[in-house]
Amino acid sequence: MSSLSVFGAQWGDEGKGKIIDLLARDADFVVRYQGGSNAGHTVIVGDEKYVLHLIPSGILHPGKVNVVGNGVALDPLTFMEEVDGLRERGIDVGSSNLRLSSSAHVILDHHRKLDGLAEAWRGGGRIGTTGRGIGPCYADKASRTGLRVADLLEPERCRERLSAALLEKNALIERVHESDPFELEEQFEKYVAVGERLRPFVCDTGALLRDAHKEGKSLLFEGAQGAMLDIDHGTYPYVTSSNTGANGIPSGSGFPARKVDRVVGIAKSYCTRVGEGAFPSEDGGEGGQELGRVGHEFGATTGRPRRCGWFDSVAVRYALDLNGADGWIMTKLDILDSFETIRVGTSYKIDGEESSVWPVGCTDLSKIEVQYEELPGWQEDITAVRRYEDLPQATRSYVEWVEERVGAPILMLSVGPERDQVIPRGL
Ligand code: IMP
User: Quick one: which atom of ligand 1 is closest to the CA of 13?
Assistant: First the structure.
């Protein structure tokens, strides 16, 4: 396959980091096309643990070109910190293996500050953002008041754009939020300086990808967050501010939609969510606590404990369908090893009416009553299994049953955090 899209099919944290790291072996280019440092992909290589927020996980493989596309909300300070951190750990990072779009919008100090202030302002209606300035940055992009990477490389233009932005943002910060404004000169110096550090990585990444594809190179598009957090198709307003699925690729990378050959979703064998908003199959009781404990469900970016619940086949089917997925990967199957019974959400009841379709247009998703079926657990350690036929019968029954409910083939199973702890099934 010369171009493959891999995206989260739940509310993020599906274990994408490890899968993308694995698939990166066969790719020439690994591409981020949306989101920003709100993402946190954890990759474990031997005794080393890497948490990458902005740089694609292909960076851990020599010889891959990692691309941060135009659709990414780029925090240049985090980007450079990540570059420095990887270099300190002996990973080679340079313009030959890391490219950054000149058109990516930049997260500035005021975006981060306004993210926090807006959350406080919302009070009980807060979204539970990661506080990384993502929403305010994308809002400025849509308002056409943002700064792009290219702007940081031209001091005069940077001063002009920054001065116009701060005029508005400082008024908002001071008069509405009654907080301290930013000083133009200080911000200008800081961002022009970091712009200089970005310069070697900057190019027209869209052209780079299109040319690479024409030359027969293989491309892996790495989605951040999950389809249910998509700004258009997710649980709005409790979403992130980008198109998180395969559907975000063309606008977020400059790579044409019809050239994406294969689309694969990723979903855990159960489900989690961080932040506020609807989570129909959440289990606030012992089951959820156990899933969180065994699955180490703490945010990679914020460290917050994740809300836990059961696999929801309605939501996953919607996410896969929406993004035209050819199939999906079930991760963290081993987390269910100790459970006597496993619940799976199979349909919804809303105001007494049963449905197996995600209720787009329903403004009160808390009305969803998930209808569950229970399956017997296998209560065996499956972390050492590498071939599908070696899994316990009860595990295979569970996998095949879920696969049928979702209606799309499971192409791989993940049974542990290490790179090699996977069971191929067609990918
Ligand atoms: P934001 O993206 O920081 O604006 O946060 C908006 C919502 O998306 C919040 O509920 C966050 O918890 C959630 N979110 C953002 N990034 C991630 C992620 O990488 N994994 C899971 N949830 C995320």
Answer: 20
What Rg do the C-alpha atoms of the chain give, in angstroms?
A: 22
Q: Which of 13, 283, 312, 326 is catalytic?
A: 13
Fold of 105-198: Adenylosuccinate Synthetase, subunit A; domain 2 (1.10.300)
Rounded CA-CA distance 362/282 in Å is 18
Is 73 touching ligand 1 by the criterion CB < 6 Å?
no
Q: Which residues contact 167 (CB under 8 A, 6 or more apart)?
A: none
Contacts of 211 (CB under 8 A, 6+ apart): none
CA 8 to ligand 1: nearest atom: 20
Q: Can you give the pTM of this predicted structure?
A: 0.96
Cβ–Cβ under 8 Å, residues 77 and 90: no
Class of domain 266-424: alpha beta
Residue nearest to atom 2 of ligand 1 (CA): 240
Query: Does the annotation count 53 as an active-site position?
Result: no
Residues 115 and 117: their CA atoms lie apart, in Å, by 6
- Intervals of CATH 3.90.170.10 along the chain: 266-424
CATH number of 3-101+202-259: 3.40.30.10, 3.40.440.10, 1.20.1070.10, 1.10.10.10? 3.40.440.10
Atom of ligand 1 nearest to the CA of 274: 12
What averages of pLDDT result for each successive group of 10 residues across the chain (427 residues)?
93 92 94 94 82 90 96 98 95 97 98 96 91 97 98 98 98 96 98 98 98 97 97 97 98 97 98 95 96 91 88 98 98 97 97 96 95 97 98 97 98 94 94
Instruction: Show the DSSP H helices in 30-103 as ranges.
Output: 76-88
Among this protein's residues, is 41 annotated catalytic? yes
Burial 161-199 (b: 16+ CB within 10 A, else e): bbeebbeebbebbeeeeeeeebeeeebbeebbebbeebe
